[in-house]
Amino acid sequence: TFTTRASAATPRIAFLWHEQLTSWKYLGTEPKEFANPTHIGASDELVVATSEGEVLKLQASNGSVLWRKRLDGVFHAGAVTGGGRSYLADLEGHVVALELRDGQTAWQTQLPNSVETRGAYAQGRLFVSDTADILHAFDAQTGEELWSLARDVPEYFTVKGSCTPVVDRDAVYCGFSDGALVAAQIDTGERLWEVDLSDGKKNFADVDGAVIVHGDRIYAVSYAGGVYALNRDTGAPIWHSRVESASDYVISGDRLFVASAVGRIIALALDDGEPLWSFKLKDSYPGSLAAFGPYVLAFSTDGPLFVLDADTGYPHVKWVGTSGFAAAVEFGSSRMYAITNHGQLLGLKLGY
Question: CA 304 to CA 281: how far, in whole Å?
Fold first, then answer.
């Protein structure tokens, strides 16, 4: 729990606009939307994919729909953009490239397995990880598969089994459901290094979250193994914090904030992993975290949005009035964009 008072001023959440993405007739208490919105900084636009197979481009400032395209898939993975295109993958393994200007299909290909996490675009390549623990690299212009890297799917229990790839210089980092984190060469898929982050656990050792590259280190989370700081070039561990059921995490300043699926937000010192404060959400569970100025935002899966003081963990705001958030939040142009469990895309602004 927090032990000191706030060091920052009390923030204010302003509601800007909303767009209903999916039909009302299927609404219930369970989460409906899992694909986070994607902000395009240069044009201040959003690309959103829904569980009903629609892809939309919206103006981020006011939520106006610029185009809407119907596809056949169910999307749990958000879009990735680059080279004037938006790239998406669905639960049936379809990977599609759409022209950003009008939503027309540039190319489409088929994977044998489902895709539940966002891909990555870099240097004219598209990287996609599927639920069978295979990382695929495509030519983003043509859709030709360049290489793939596979690990054996473990026989024990896993959380999701696919990770959002992250590209840094000539390496792409990707986690797997057996607790391994692999660095692969982006041109060939050759393994540069790999490290086991399972902490000796068998069940639920997945490295599902995207790694964070920060200076000469990378940071990674294993659901069962906890939080790791690693040497970027070799993968050698620098420190390890055993956070129970670690899910999402974010870095701001000299701190790393991690969400535990048991309903706790924990602040760790970035340098050595020492715990600084912990905040229990009581009856709520964090779906995703975001850092904004002197605050940490915890979007819970069952309703409230908590705004915590980054220095102390003091809860400035508990914003209620939604059905909860299963999809990750997106930031851009001093605004934040979140999709509720009932399929509403919200444009919000946080001010000091």
Answer: 10
Q: List Cβ<8 Å contacts ≥24 apart for 109-116.
A: 109/138, 109/143, 109/145, 111/136, 114/90, 115/76, 115/77, 115/89, 115/90, 115/91, 115/162, 116/34, 116/76, 116/77, 116/91, 116/160, 116/162
Helix (H, G, I), strand (E, B) or coil at 229: strand
Cα distance between residue 286 and residue 164, in whole Å: 19
For each successive 10 residues of the chain (352 residues), what is the average pLDDT? 66 91 64 89 95 95 96 93 97 97 97 94 97 96 97 73 89 94 97 95 86 96 94 97 90 95 93 96 84 91 90 92 84 88 89 74
- Look up residue 208 and give its DSSP letter: -
Q: Does this model's pTM top 0.90?
A: yes
Alpha-helical (H) ranges within 134-182 are none
Indicate left, alpha or beta for 63 from its phi (over 0: left) and psi (-120 to 50: alpha). left
Q: Contact 107/97 with Cβ under 8 angstroms?
A: yes
Three-state DSSP state, 126:
strand
Task: Identify the residue whose tokens are 């599902």.
Answer: 208
Tokens found for residue 330: 């997106």
pLDDT value of position 326? 86
